[in-house]
Amino acid sequence: MDKQTQAIQSQSEAPDCGTKIIITSIRIQGLLNLSLCLFIQTILLFSADSRQILNDDTNRKILEQILNLHLLLDLAGFFIGLLVLYLLWAGICALAAAAVIRVYHYPLRANLLVFIIATTLLFGLNSKLFGLASTAVFSNTLLSSGFFLTILALLLFSPALFQAFRIMSGWSPTMRTVAMLGIIGVLIGLYYPASPPSVVRAGHTTPDIIIIGIDALRPDKLGINGFSPSLTPNIDHFLQSSEIYSNTFTPVARTFASWSALLTGKHPVNNKVRFNLIDKRPLDLKDNMVAVLRKNHFHTIHAMDERRFSHIDEDFGFDEVVGPKAGAADFLISLAIGHPVLDLFCETRFCKWFFPYVYSNRAYPALYRPETFIDEIEHALHGARGKPVFLTVHLTLPHYPFISRGMQVVQGHGKPTSYNESVYFTYLSMLQLVDEQFKQLMAMLQRLQFIENSHIYLISDHGESFDFSTDRLTPGNPYTTFATNAPGHGTKITDLEQFRVLLARKTPQTRPSRSNELKSLIDIYPTVLNDLGIRHGNQLDGMPLSDSNHDRHLYLESSFGTTFVPADSVDVEDIIRGGISFYEVNPQGQVRLMPDKIDLLMYDKQRGIIYRDWLLALFPDLQDELILVNHKTGVWWPASTPVEGLNAPAYDMFNQLCEHYRDDTGFDQNKLCGNETIMDSLKKWSSMEARTTMLPSLRNAHREL
Predict the structure, then answer these.
(1) Where would I find the H helices in 406-546?
(2) Would 615 disulfide with which of 151, 423, 551, 629, CB 3.0-4.6 Å?
(3) Residue among 111, 93, 87, 86 nearest 163 (CA)
């Protein structure tokens, strides 16, 4: 027996030897695990993707914004929580190492052995449970197999439990009982799903109003609209018994602007919401739908599982907001997601309180669980307490990056042969996932008796374009060229698949029907007021869905144009590099569009008008031209070149467009409104009968121009 072994054995006879061994193990394991934390964070921060984000220019702009008290506190809270998790994990490892030392009398070697076992177990579990995580390095290998992970877990936790019981053996019976109950309570709290409180639905006869939004859902990708084989059977089932409005558009194909139009019942030029992440303080939100229903004793809830670019919250009048915390820290924390110990902890509901930016956040696709978000909505519904409920839910699984935990290969639609097609197929996979989440949501609402007496609207906030040839418009003049399509959403108003949205309504009195009249998301607000019999003096741009108006005009506008955000890429790094100089972190630690940049962006807006089957589009970079589109046939023409025999109401439409945006910043930079040459060309598209039906106010406006 060597001298080191004899020394350890002789020390083991001393009364404080066990304490010394544990303290030594805690120190060693703490140092090793903190080093592991730092190593992983370094890898995450300087990975290939992060280096693209944190290039010199972008990094400087981020650092300029980071000296913000709320942002620093949020980041500090996240990293302190992360360090605590590593130290707790180090404590488990220290207990196991202390037990091993009693058999293998080499403290440093024993601690290293336990650290290797524990770290392998961490990365193995991470690889098995979170295959999309950046640290899932053992995916589809023996090290992530259930058998191997079970062996590792036994090797780690058996000696740790043995050492824990050995320590507690010296305690009084009362202390042991309290400790055991505490451990059991923590384990139950971590992994046993909490039963939400019962929801009382009695006590009111007013129908509940429920609006369910699905991000980036294109109506033409639904089975009920002919997409076969269907990837959305649950959504299709709902639509089969609903009123479907199949010719519906959003005014702006961006989430925040789209929902703001819905909640205010106004076009963006009137509600002042022209872009995502604008400052809400100048907005007049007191008369939006949420505030009006709240005054009429509704309990109002907004639920959204990704809030980076849509900051709809209590400022709109909601009593409760469900979803991850919103703020600038969300963008930076994304560079720290991938720690195995954090990933595992966020499988528990304790993550909600310690890591509010991470829990139930679809922006972290490796960790997001759709059913967790539905559970959060269920808990929120308890606050109704007998009141009628106004619930808005927005499911963002189909939004870029089109990947998420649990995604499956799309069957029955061929295989991708190009990069664009591979992105499209992952989008289709997200449709499968969100369809299952929709099923879970409806089942929960049915169980809580929110279906029988509810008016339910199913919408999408915008579509999505992949710049496929099947989506491109056909030039009516073979001698002209113009890029009418662009990938993404909100980037090109002539790409109507970005602006065409789902709108369906289901009430207890609903009979299945389909309408092809021109509708907009701004029509939901007046429809809700009309159905509830609420008198409201505000001037709304929308009209009840039951009203018919064949001569209706709708207005579309783009968001960030391709001058600032690359239109040929849906890459997050490109978007950040292209747009970061337009944003700032406000004193509350939230990302906002810089006020002095808004006018610059307004000059880049595309604006258009839809009337019946026609779209007339005005582009700021076209100095003497407009684009006329028949969106029913998918054919476009330069508006300055009329086609003989083709009767299009281009003249009236342009007058309407000029009137609507007359005082709008950046509109008509090339002075086309009132331009005699342009107006004469547009007249030739229309019949004399169509011209004489122009509103008198528009004739006067034209004379003034």
Answers:
(1) 419-447, 524-532
(2) 629
(3) 93
Q: How many CB atoms lie within 10 A of CB 168?
A: 15
So what's the pLDDT on residue 190? Answer: 65
**Residue 171: Cβ within 10 Å count:** 12
Chain centre to alpha carbon of residue 575: 16
Question: What would the 3-class secondary structure string for 40-78 be?
Answer: HHHHHHCCHHHHHHCCHHHHHHHHHHHCCHHHHHHHHHH
Q: What pLDDT, on the 0 to 100 scale, is given for residue 469?
A: 80
Which residue in this structure is represented by tokens 């996932």? 433
Name the residue with tokens 């005082």.
663
- Whether omega for the bond prior to residue 207 falls within 30 degrees of 0, making it cis, is no
- Are the C-beta atoms of 662 and 634 separated by less than 8 Å? no
CA distance 231 to 234: 9
Is residue 474 within a helix (H) or strand (E), and if so which, with residue range?
strand 474-475
- Give CA–CA dist 535/640, Å, rounded: 46
Residues 224 and 458: their CA atoms lie apart, in Å, by: 14
Q: What does the pLDDT read at residue 494?
A: 95
The residues pairing with 636 across neighbouring beta strands, listed in sequence order, are 475, 629
Assign 3-class secondary structure to 598-618: HHHHHCCCCEEEEECCEEEEE
Mean pLDDT by 10 residues, the chain (705 residues): 49 55 90 93 71 52 69 92 95 94 88 96 94 88 92 94 86 80 72 60 81 97 96 98 97 95 95 89 84 93 93 91 92 86 90 93 93 94 86 96 90 84 92 98 93 95 89 88 90 94 95 95 96 85 92 92 40 50 82 86 94 95 93 92 88 96 94 92 70 35 29
SS3 assignment for 146-158: HHHHHHHHHHHHH
Look at residue 562 in the predicted model and tell me its pLDDT: 41
What is the β-pairing status of strands 503-506 and 243-245? Answer: antiparallel
Neighbours of 132 (CB within 10 A): 17
Encoding tokens for residue 117? Answer: 């076992």
Q: What is the pTM of this model?
A: 0.89
Give the DSSP H/E element, type plus range, for residue 288.
none
Which tokens go with 415? 């295989």
Beta-carbon count within 10 A of 343 CB: 23
What would the DSSP string read from start to end of 536-559? --S--S---TT---TT-EEEEE-S
Q: How far is CA 657 from the centre of its chain?
A: 32
How far is residue 550's CA from residue 204's CA, in Å, rounded to a whole number? 38
Whole-angstrom Cα distance, residue 12 to residue 34?
Answer: 29
> How many other C-beta atoms can be found within 10 angstroms of the C-beta atom of residue 103?
8
